[in-house]
Amino acid sequence: MIIQMSGVKFLVLCYLTCTGTLLNGEVFDSSRERMRPFCFIIGRNEVIRGWDEGVAQMSKGQRAKLICSPDFAYGKKGCDNVIPPNATLTFDVELIDVERDDSCRIFL
């Protein structure tokens, strides 16, 4: 998500809660269990492609289920003995807040 205003683009910082599961239903991560939102800047490759593209389509307050094929998740490598290679992942995501990140301006 990028906000454009008078020749300047601002990147957007997203705050969300999420629970990630494997196809068998096993939970591999949950910001809800940690009772702390996860935050990242859309479009900076800070998260998997499925999040960058999926969360960018959401509105503040919206809850969505993102199903990420391996190409949109961790691919052939998997991740840290937690996510196996070629895993399809499901995320229950709630976008709780968004804010313009003034430190990340792109001048056109």
TrEMBL record:
Residues 19-99 form the PPIase FKBP-type domain. PROSITE patterns: FKBP_PPIASE. One of its GO terms (molecular function) is peptidyl-prolyl cis-trans isomerase activity. The keyword Chloroplast does not apply. Residues 1-25 form the signal peptide. Keywords: Isomerase, Rotamase, Signal. Its EC number is 5.2.1.8. One of its GO terms (cellular component) is sarcoplasmic reticulum membrane. PANTHER family: FK506-BINDING PROTEIN 59-RELATED (PTHR10516:SF443), PEPTIDYL-PROLYL CIS-TRANS ISOMERASE (PTHR10516). This is peptidylprolyl isomerase.
